[in-house]
Structure formats: C-alpha cells, structure tokens
Amino acid sequence: MYESVLIKMISRNIYKVVLNSIMLFVFLMLLIPSTAAQQIKATATLDSSAIKIGQQVKLQLSIQYRVDNGKRIEIIWPQIEDTLRKEIEVVNQSKIDTLIDKNDPYLFTQSRTLTLTSFDSGYWAIPPFKFFAGDTNGVFTDALLMEVTTIAVDTTQAIKDIKAPFEDTYSWLDWLKDNMYVIWVSIGALMTLLILLFIIKYTRKVKPPMVIVEVPKIPAHIIAFEKLEKLKMESLWQEGKLKLYHSKLTDIIREYIENRFKIQAQEQTTEEILFGFRNVSIDEESRTKLKQTLLLADLVKFAKEEPMPGENERSLAYSFDFINGTKREEEEENIKNPSKD
What confidence tens digit (pLDDT) does each residue in 68-79 have? Predict the structure, then answer.
C-alpha cells in the first residue's frame, strides 16, 4: 500500500517537472522576438509642432537597430506619397542616411528628413509610420500632432487697396552696365573677324586661271571598229563559244547604234531596232546587213542554232560593213585636225 502511494507521488512530481519545462520553453520562445523588437526602435520628430499656414516644417524619421554576430537585418521603409493626409503635403524627401554609433560599432541608425507644409488651419494628427525590420511584424513610430495657424487680421482697421507696383527707372546706361562683359566680347570678336578678312584679302596669292583642254570626242565608229578587231582576235566561235561570240558582236553593234543614231538599242529587241530605223536615212545594203547579223545572233542565242563557219565570219564582215557604211566622216576629220580656237 505504501509502495503504491509512493509511486503515485513520484509520477505526479515528474509530471509537474515536465509541464513546467514545457511552459518555460514556450515563454523563452515568446521572449526572443520581443527582445529582438526591443533592439529595433523607430522614431518620428517634428522640428516645430506649430506653424503658420503655408510655412514649412521638418519631420525626421529614423530607425535604430543592432547587428550582432554579423547577422544582416533588412530594413523596409514606409512608402511616403505626396501627402501624409489631405491637409498635410510632402514638399521634399531627403535620401536615407545610415550612421554607425561611435561607441558601439554594432548599433546602426537610418534616417531621412521630410519637408512638410499645410494650407489648412487646424490641429492635424500625423499617423504612425510603420517600418519592417528583420523578423518583426512591424515597428511603429509615435503619432504626432501639428498645429497650423492662420495670419492674424486686425478687423478693427479699414480694408485697404493693394499697393501699386513700384516703377522701375531702368535706363540704357543701366543696360550697358549690366551687359558690359557681353559688349566687350562682341567688340573683340568683330575686330578679330575684320583682321582675318584683311589678311585673307591682301595676303592670298592670285591663282592663274584654270586652262581646260578639251579632248576631242572619239567617234562612235572608231570605238566600234576597235572592239570588233578585239573580238576577231579572241577567236571565240573557233573554240565553240558561238553564243558568247554572237552576244558580244551584237552588243558592239547596239552600242554603236546608240552612240551614232541615239536609238536605245541596248534595251530593245531586234524587231524594235529594225523598226526604229524606218525613219533613219541609210542605204538599203547597210539595212540588210544589220538585219541579217541581228537575226542570226537571235537564232544562236535563243534557238540554239549552230551556224556554219562561213556564216560566223560573214556576221563579223557585215558588222564592219554596216558601221563603215553609216559612219560620220566629219567626226573623223575633227579627230585628225582638231580646232585651235
């Protein structure tokens, strides 16, 4: 019987010890955030609690916190708009400054200054500012009260008109005094410009007149003859390059027609070129040789015709004959005997 009573007493004591230990642990866990919160302090102070309407006042916000063992604490400042309330306007906000305590290198203070004003008379409460710091749920400043008073008006005095503006007796002499620096700079620039113009006018060398020597233009038939001779020396059709041979041959003839008769032969077909010669005064033999040369070249280029060797040579000879029969003799005379005018 005594043993059972003793066991019950021991069990009851063990239960109390465990329960007290749990309660102590919970209390310590609740105490840690409150201790951290005590290390973070936010303040808001006005340099004057009473201003006249339209005047400005400084509001200093600051938050103080400790950083132990290199632990970083993130500080989130409250978002401040253009007004704290509809009666109080924020004129300016300074940057956030961070200071370290001289006696305690782990104690930091962040601060910024707000410039406030008000155009409504009365007593206006400035609500607390909320900071977020570290693991806390928020640190608040104290609320503030600002008094805005109006300008006292003596109602016993008669109402007076607004004073007229003073007349400004500003003369041209005053203008000269105010702009003397600009005047001297302008005079100096003008003198410098005149000196430079004088130097350029009386010191530059007179250049002799440029002599332009006119080179007589090479007649179209001479250019064409040179290109035909070069084509002949290339021996293209002898090497089986029939299409290239007839293409170059007709290009030379088309270029000659453009330079000699001003017909856009480079961009025209054979039919269009022959049609363009309907009003050109040339002999019938030259017209026939031109037609046969161009038509044979079209057959080679587009119908894959393979002319006989005699036909290839005849196209070259017809080209010489056509150019020789339609050339301008007077142009060749001008090349041989240029004017001395």
Answer: 776 778 889 999
State which residues form the domain around 107.
Answer: 41-149
Q: Which of 127, 149, 171 is the last residue of a domain?
A: 149
Residue 26 falls inside a structural domain: no
Cβ atoms 150, 119 nearer than 8 A: no
The mean pLDDT value for 103-122 works out to 91
Ordered DSSP codes for 146-160: EEEEPPP--TTSPP-
pLDDT level of residue 35 (50, 70, 90 thresholds): very low
- 23/17 Cα distance (integer angstroms): 10
Q: Are 139 and 63 in contact (CB under 8 A)?
A: yes
Tokens, residue 120: 């409504």
Beta-bridged to residue 42, according to DSSP, are 63
Residue 191 is encoded by which pair of tokens? Answer: 């003198």
In a domain, 291, yes or no: yes
**What is the amino acid identity at position 252?**
I
Closest CA to 231 of 257, 252, 205: 252
Count how many Cα atoms sit within 13 Å of the Cα of residue 25 in the half-sphere of its side chain.
6
Least confident of 77-91, 157-171, 185-199, 243-257: 157-171
Asked if 35 and 47 touch (Cβ cutoff 8 Å), the reply is no
Cβ-contact 323, 259 below 8 angstroms: no
pTM flag (> 0.85): no
CA 100/CA 110 separation, integer angstroms? 9
Helix (H, G, I), strand (E, B) or coil at 41: strand
Q: Which of 120, 149, 178 is the last residue of a domain?
A: 149
CB environment 285-309: b (16+ within 10 A), e (fewer): ebbebbbebbebbeebeeeeeebee
Q: For residues 315 and 298, what is the distance between their CA atoms, to the nearest angstrom?
A: 12
Spatial separation of the C-alpha atoms in residues 23 and 286, rounded to whole Å:
128
**Does the structure show a pLDDT above 50 at 34?**
no
Contact 101, 107 (CB under 8 A): yes
